[in-house]
Amino acid sequence: MILFWYSVILFVSTLALNFYLLIGFKQIKQVSRQPVMDSPPPLAIIIAVRNEEEGLEKALQSVCHINYPNHRLIVVNDRSTDRTADILKDFSLRYPKLQVTTIDTLPDGWLGKNNALYQGYLSSTEEWMLFADADIVFHPDAINQAVGYAVKHEVDHLTMLPELISRSSILNSVFATLSIMLMIAMKPWEAKNPKSKASSGIGAFNLVRRTAYEKIGTHVRIKQRPDDDLQLGQLIKKEGLRQDVLAGKGYVCLEWYRNLGELGRGVQKNSFAMAKYSITQAIVNVLNMLLTVALPMPLMFIFGTPVIRIMASVMLIVHIIYMELVPPNKWWYAFMIPLSGLFLAWHFLKASIITVVQGGIYWRDSFYSLDMLKGRG
């Protein structure tokens, strides 16, 4: 009887959530369909880099050839020890709009990337600022069209959902499941609704009006948060400022991680922060992933009655339809949902335990203690 009602609840919620997500995605406009501005406002593009030699040249090539005459590119080199400094020097000689700021020491109480972005802000004067990651490849018109949308709609903060590109099909299938979980949690299409608590912050593309950024207290307010992009979006929404989201398919591309191992290590940075550094909340989050993502269909197919198996089959068909309708997903990603859920649950739990045991997180060759992350250090 327990399995029956568990199956009924998951059956109804799965159908409802898939429908809800499809409706939500339809509300997010494509940046590719926005007009190009002839006279865009002044813009500072601020990118923090640390040991980015592998993908930096490709990303800089794209951002140095954007269709945006009134911009300045500020790249903050945060204590890099590889060839990053040489690459930046070469680009700065060829592209006069590129300004390199070098950080040699990390101030107490700051995470490296947060400090680098803040230093980029201090080096800028422009009306608009775009905080972007160092591995983003931009279409030449992407930034122009995004700023044009923000100006036209009087938005204070605009984020962009990047197109995730991976050389691994298995990794892409995990991304598809993770994307569903993130979209349910974030509800980015509701960010523009002032009555909704939903907000959006995306490290790949955070375009913010200077006055809005200063009103929320800049990165000083979130200097100890590894999920700085999410926190930036939340602060802007809490201040009652206007926020919106665009989809960047084909225009803002990102190879987020190259393999499952990198994804697992990447989870360590943010997962415990999302649980507010509470091991109890982390366990609740992991159990939720297991009970709602990883286990439903396997339990229903293996142990269920014919009626329960019919419900599981309908759930699987709905997932297949969803994957087909939301590019760049492939239909067979639906079969990977249980394994992806198990993979993510395990790494969320592992990351939380490791963080507690070692008393903090290692990220980009720096150690940040839990006391510091909690604001006590």
Automatic annotation (TrEMBL):
GO terms for molecular function: glycosyltransferase activity. One of its GO terms (cellular component) is plasma membrane. It is found in: Cell membrane. InterPro entries: Glyco_trans_2-like, Nucleotide-diphossugar_trans. It comes from the Bacteria. Keywords: Cell membrane, Glycosyltransferase, Membrane, Transferase, Transmembrane, Transmembrane helix. The keyword Coiled coil does not apply. The keyword Transmembrane applies. Residues 45-216 form the Glycosyltransferase 2-like domain. The chain crosses the membrane at residues 6-25, 277-295, 307-325. Its main location: membrane. Pfam families: Glycos_transf_2. This is Glycosyltransferase, catalytic subunit of cellulose synthase and poly-beta-1,6-N-acetylglucosamine synthase.
